[in-house]
Design a protein that fits this description.
The chain is an alpha/beta fold. It is about 40% helix and about 15% strand. Helix 1 runs parallel beside helix 2 and helix 1 packs antiparallel against helix 5. The chain is globular.
């Protein structure tokens, strides 16, 4: 993955950190630009620790989550914005679909990353996949001449879900994040509303590092992130 313009679109404000934070840091470290878009803050379904505070409100949770995500993105050299479309349930109407498509078209990423199309334990994630997949097609003109500006189709990847075996996830791309692992750890530590995930995803990076070493023969790889490429790889020769 050698994107100069990387866009990660997650259902909730922390999704990018766990699953593509390393890829963001690799991109920016190599002189590229990484942009994170969250469809929601995860204020209802993914902010359990915050709701333990007495007198908590939706708006307060959103403010905290925005700050966490913004600081995490900064640690990776990326930018962050939330479209604040609500979660549990996340619902994408026509206007929201156009907004997502416009964000993709305006940034014109080389690589676009989002969720898998299946997740039995998080109903918002497949909704995000469907919206991003459709918005990507609209932004690229769906392969035909259009009456509006279109972009070169970005390479489309799915990042690793929490339960990969149950989400139709088959990794076919590993990104070596060894050199940026400290930045990813710093970013994960900002997500205090979901501290319980920090250890899990640090361990997952080590596990995927092992897979990347065995797949490549490169013994220098210690940590990696796994992705599933959706778009075909077009080459001039094998």
């Amino acid at each position: 993955m050698s994107a100069q313009r990387l866009m990660v679109i997650g259902a909730h404000s922390a999704d990018f950190v766990w699953r593509a934070g390393g890829a963001c840091a690799v991109t920016t470290t190599n002189g590229g630009e990484a942009r994170v878009v969250a469809l929601s803050y995860g204020e209802r379904g993914e902010s359990g620790e915050l709701w333990k505070e007495e007198g908590q409100t939706i708006e307060k949770v959103k403010r905290v989550r925005h700050g966490e995500a913004e600081r995490a993105a900064a640690a990776l050299g990326a930018t962050f914005e939330s479209l604040d479309l609500g979660d549990y349930p996340l619902e994408i109407d026509g206007d929201a679909l156009i907004l997502i498509s416009d964000k993709i078209r305006a940034f014109a990423p080389d690589v676009l990353i989002t969720h898998t199309d299946t997740d039995p334990f998080n109903p918002d994630h497949p909704i995000a996949y469907a919206a991003v997949n459709r918005a990507r097609g609209l932004a690229a003109g769906a392969g035909v001449s259009s009456a509006f500006k279109t972009i070169t189709p970005p390479v489309f990847y799915l990042f690793e879900p929490h339960q990969p075996e149950l989400c139709n996830f088959t990794p076919n791309t590993f990104v070596d994040i060894t050199s940026v692992m400290e930045a990813k750890l710093t970013a994960m530590q900002e997500m205090k509303a979901q501290k319980y995930l920090q250890t899990y995803y640090a361990q997952r990076a080590d596990q995927r590092g092992n897979h990347a070493r065995r797949s490549s023969g490169n013994q220098e790889i210690r940590q990696a992130e796994a992705f599933q490429r959706v778009t075909p790889n077009v080459v001039s020769a094998l």
